[in-house]
Amino acid sequence: MALDKPYKDIPGTTIFDADMSRLGYHLNQFCMSLMKPENRARFQADERAYLDEWPMREEQKRAVLARDLNRCIALGGNIYFLAKIGATDGRSFQQMAASMTGMTEAEYRDMMLRGGRPIDGNRYVGERKETR
């Protein structure tokens, strides 16, 4: 990493910066390929064979096959590109987001309707001073 990144200190947050972009370049290009119907059909017919056409890291390919979107993000995937996988699978963004939180789709929807996750615990690690 070329620069100091104080945002690496935010629990549960992955910032898609230049380093992550480089790490996930081929993963994200694969995802963008799914915008074409013929590529979606090829992927659906033999996911592993289609993934092997891309110079992605093996760990990235395994994360895609497992539909482990959190791992894909950790390996440089951008959620807006990864949404193409969900769309190929016939899943909504809400369904994908729910799977990333460990909630059911209904639980995730209800949480978002209540205003999202509580802010408790969403601080910089360095800010965790007890002020009560």
Task: Considering the chains and any ligands shown, give keywords for the structure.
Protocatechuate 4,5-dioxygenase, Chain A, 9 helices, mainly alpha, 132 residues, 55% helix
Helices and strands, with pairings:
Layout: H1 18-23, H2 25-33, H3 37-45, H4 47-51, H5 58-66, H6 69-74, H7 79-88, H8 93-101, H9 105-113
Describe the structure in your own words.
The termini are far apart. This protein has a domain at 15-90: Dioxygenase LigAB, LigA subunit (Protocatechuate 4,5-dioxygenase, Chain A, Orthogonal Bundle), CATH 1.10.700.10. The longest helix has 10 residues, at 79-88. The protein has 132 residues and is an all-alpha fold. It contains nine helices and no strands.
In brief, what are we looking at here?
The protein is mainly alpha-helical and 132 residues long. It has helices at residues 18-23, 25-33, 37-45, 47-51, 58-66, 69-74, 79-88, 93-101, 105-113. It has a domain at 15-90: Protocatechuate 4,5-dioxygenase, Chain A, CATH 1.10.700.10.
| CATH fold title of the domain at 15-90 | Protocatechuate 4,5-dioxygenase, Chain A
Largest sheet, in brief, is:
none
Identify the CATH architecture of the domain at 15-90: Orthogonal Bundle
| Alpha carbon gyration radius | 17 Å
